[in-house]
Amino acid sequence: MRYLPLDTEDRRAMLDVVGAKAIDELFADVPADALNPPLDLPDHAGEFAVERQMAAMAGKNRAAGAGPFFVGAGAYRHHVPATVDHIIQRSEFLTSYTPYQPEIAQGTLQYLFEFQTQVASLTGMDVANASMYDGSTACAEAALMARRVTRRDGILMSGSLHPHYESVTRMNGGLVGGKATVSEASPDGADNVIDLISDETACVIVQTPDVFGNVVDLEPIAKAAHDKGALLVAVVTEAVSLGALKSPGEMGADIVVGEGQSIGNALNFGGPYVGLFATRQKFMRNMPGRLCGETVDAGGKRGFVLTLSTREQHIRRDKATSNICTNSGLCALAFTIHMTLLGETGLRKLATLNHEAACATADALSAIDGVELVNDAFFNEFTLRLPKDAAEVVEALAAKDILAGVPGSRLWPEDESKHNLLIVAATELTQDKDIEAFANALKEVL
Amino acid sequence: MSMNNQGRPSRPEDIEVQSVETFTGNRALQIEEALIFETGHMAATGVDLPEPKGTRSRLGGLERKGTMNLPGLAEPEAMRHFVRLSQKNYAIDMGPFPLGSCTMKHNPRLNEKMARLPGFAEIHPLQPVSTVQGALELIDTLAGWLKELTGMPAVAMSPKAGAHGELCGMVTIKAALEARGEAETRTRVLAPESAHGTNPATAAQCGFTVDAIPADDTGRVDIEAFKAKLGDDVAAIMVTNPNTCGLFERDIREMADAVHEAGGYFYCDGANFNAIVGKVKPGDLGIDAMHINLHKTFSTPHGGGGPGSGPTVLSEALAPFAPIPYVVSDADGFHLIEKRSQEEGDHHSFGRMTAFHGQMGMFVRALTYMLSHGGDGLRQAAEDAVLNANYVLARLSAEMTPAFEGTCMHEALFNDDFLKDTGVGTLDFAKAMIDEGYHPMTMYFPLVVHGAMLIEPTETESRHELDLFCDALLSLAKEAKAGKADKFKAAPVLSPRRRLDETAAARKPVLRWEPSNDESMAAE
């Protein structure tokens, strides 16, 4: 039991100090018949025994880097520089707690301040918080915040919002009288969301690029929302797109939420990720989650603290803006390091490489008979309409060791009109030979 | 947990401190470090990428123009920046981190190594289920351990942290009440005054009103007062066990029976499960739901504030309403139920907590830890955690005042009686610990104890380390009683920063860097 420093002699001596004869005297408040139950579990094991067991399970999964890979729809395979993983494993970052004692947590606090600044700049907003769990929960929190700000109940979501984001937002945003509605959106970008905005609408939630990959011009939606006194919540599931596309803030968004996984974080089968949450200065005090702010110490030196905590659960309890406590600190650090390494210059170039890879992939695949590219404008992801059920195609291609993308039935099992759709993502890691292998195999299975 | 005296922003007192000044502001190994926005350049980058080919853009005319104000750093500069920042942090790898209720225990590096296996780190949540059978097996195996350790029949794996698990549990309860046709009438949730802030916040987020249960003079739920509050409008109780005073709720079965008789459910806050893991199965005590903080009990690192992971175990009554997605298995292997329309039998999920399957990276770490400890090691860990806390309680009682009589579970709670008339407050006492090389304990929480100091050593501290820690605190207590208040008021003076002005930070929030920040701060 390598993680336990006490030995038998320590335990005996310490029990003496405590004044107990046996350890179970300290568990005397536990109902006697419930104490020390049988456990149907294996006994402790050494490192290499555990490694073998874990490696056996890991070995049954097809890793993204093991062959052609085109899966996206809310999580993306990007290269993470070695420096990022080294730094986040430093003891002082990995094994510290939430920075409640700022005198000995300036490392965490300063990177959170840098993270907030980077997220605000990227999204084109005034302020950002110190992270949420992921993009989907950030989206739900944005709906709740919009309801607080507008004192309205209507949560209007575009039909081209990632359906899992829609579910999370519907569940959480709708708990206390929230009324969720979803517009009709087609894979080619047509969307009637503007027509559905009313005087009861608290917020309009629109994703760009949307779940089908379409780049969405938010300006007309922002104007229509503001005309009715509603807020525009922009959702970005691919953070790298912000290096190429006009920022949601520039297009009039009031709250921008996003998934930051693409910058600094691995795919990890869906988590942990890092939720981005940014808004305008005037809504600052309505934000959920932790905020880091600048101040000075007793000696006049600049320093950072968690601030505006009277919004939060540990102070405000049932009146808090959110119940969130632990967030995604270390993932936010990974984001900040990667973003710092990239800089604006690197981010723009990375975004361009992503877009070029997607254009090349789209051209190669849409040249195949029966395959139709549905998007006009896209970033690093697009949707193909196939002549047959896309899930069958994905399975057939997986058997050829090509992970082709996300079939419509995975996201919309109830909506058969979308089952021939295949959502395909390409990134800077997509190589020409991957595209060629994909195109050749797709021809074979169609 | 709470940052200072009942959450009020504090500001440093004006006390003269003699300090050694340097020309640079650096202090030997402590190097001052500017913000990246002050040292970086717009043209700089620490990543070499291939040149784009110059393909015609298909971005629909929505290209980003103008600067983003995101400077970059070359790799050596970035490395140095973040390493210097790291050296301004305290960490469990450096010394005891006795934050009560937070469970700062050793984070084994084997867990990190396993989480980085490409078969776990480089798999996508939406790739074909046939290509991630090992991942689903891992989730299923971890779920099996959690069910066995809690004695509960089901577990929702997707909640992203403890508070998210609470939300999952309370929404599940709401769904069960809806199915019974009682969602409109059962609107009240009972929670002890000593509860974590997340409990009332979560209940309120679900639309429940929160009614506080008073504590008795032993620091536990006042069972008679609790029973008097039950009624047919009660949806659930939310009780932490062991509670936030570090005590086991010895009437827990009576509470469970009473709430069930009244038609409500029992939500147990499992933040302190580390005290009883392997020793007691909460399922044997009558609970209906409980989240488990994998980042506390099962040692996944806190990472400066996350990520966490909050799987939530559920009783038979609540299991059918569990969130999607979840893993099922048959002779063909493992499958994922991702939509309500795919559910079979009695399942009618309330919906989705998050976009994907939960904190897989944390699942890998937690299962690695469980396999390493085994059932026998987990039980030993709980015993050692309780023994360490009682040892600290016994030793510190020589100078400090325990909040309650008797032994404790995994954390030792003191009040500020021993500081009475010394001019030293709980905050000052805690800040003085920093100069002695220790992270302070949790202060002013739970709210039911005046000037509370909650110390949780965990099982991964050695007796030697605990002795040094106790010696330091006993010396401080003696010094406070000897009238050295000024030293405490000024503390800390040896840390990278002295006390920070939280009042100023909250009055005029500066939440991001702007070129003018420095000037505006100087003009204050």
UniProtKB/TrEMBL annotation, chain A:
For this UniProt record, the keywords arranged alphabetically read as follows: Oxidoreductase
In terms of InterPro entries, this protein maps to: GcvPA (IPR023010), GDC-P_N (IPR049315), PyrdxlP-dep_Trfase (IPR015424), PyrdxlP-dep_Trfase_major (IPR015421), PyrdxlP-dep_Trfase_small (IPR015422)
What name has this protein been given in UniProt? Probable glycine dehydrogenase (decarboxylating) subunit 1
Q: Which GO terms describe its molecular function?
A: glycine dehydrogenase (decarboxylating) activity
Quaternary form? Answer: The glycine cleavage system is composed of four proteins: P, T, L and H. In this organism, the P 'protein' is a heterodimer of two subunits.
Query: What reaction(s) does this enzyme catalyze?
Result: N(6)-[(R)-lipoyl]-L-lysyl-[glycine-cleavage complex H protein] + glycine + H(+) = N(6)-[(R)-S(8)-aminomethyldihydrolipoyl]-L-lysyl-[glycine-cleavage complex H protein] + CO2
In its UniProt record, which GO terms are filed under biological process? glycine decarboxylation via glycine cleavage system; nucleoside metabolic process
The text of the family note is: Belongs to the GcvP family. N-terminal subunit subfamily.
What does the record give as EC number?
1.4.4.2
Task: State the protein's purpose.
Answer: The glycine cleavage system catalyzes the degradation of glycine. The P protein binds the alpha-amino group of glycine through its pyridoxal phosphate cofactor; CO(2) is released and the remaining methylamine moiety is then transferred to the lipoamide cofactor of the H protein.
Pfam families recorded: GDC-P
Domain (Glycine cleavage system P-protein N-terminal) spans 1-440
HAMAP family registered for this protein in UniProt: GcvPA
From TrEMBL, chain B:
GO terms (BP aspect) = glycine decarboxylation via glycine cleavage system
InterPro entries in alphabetical order: Aminotrans_V_dom, GDC-P_C, GDC_P, PyrdxlP-dep_Trfase, PyrdxlP-dep_Trfase_major, PyrdxlP-dep_Trfase_small
Q: Which GO terms describe its cellular component?
A: cytosol; glycine cleavage complex
What positions does the domain Glycine dehydrogenase C-terminal occupy? Answer: 381-488
**What terms describe the molecular function in GO for this protein?**
glycine binding; glycine dehydrogenase (decarboxylating) activity; pyridoxal phosphate binding
Q: Matching Gene3D superfamilies, A to Z?
A: 6.20.440.10, Aspartate Aminotransferase, domain 1, Type I PLP-dependent aspartate aminotransferase-like (Major domain)
Q: Which reaction does it catalyse?
A: N(6)-[(R)-lipoyl]-L-lysyl-[glycine-cleavage complex H protein] + glycine + H(+) = N(6)-[(R)-S(8)-aminomethyldihydrolipoyl]-L-lysyl-[glycine-cleavage complex H protein] + CO2
Question: Pfam families from the entry?
Answer: Aminotran_5, GcvP2_C
The top EC class, named as a word, is: oxidoreductase
**UniProt keywords, alphabetically:** Oxidoreductase, Pyridoxal phosphate
* Domain Aminotransferase class V positions: 201-303
Give the EC number(s) under which this enzyme is classified. Answer: 1.4.4.2
Q: Where are the annotated segments for Disordered? A: 46-70, 505-524
Coiled-coil residue spans: none
Q: Which NCBIfam families match?
A: PRK04366.1
Q: Relate the protein's function as given in its record.
A: The glycine cleavage system catalyzes the degradation of glycine. The P protein binds the alpha-amino group of glycine through its pyridoxal phosphate cofactor; CO(2) is released and the remaining methylamine moiety is then transferred to the lipoamide cofactor of the H protein.
What is the protein name for this chain? glycine dehydrogenase (aminomethyl-transferring)
* Protein species of origin: Aquisalinus luteolus
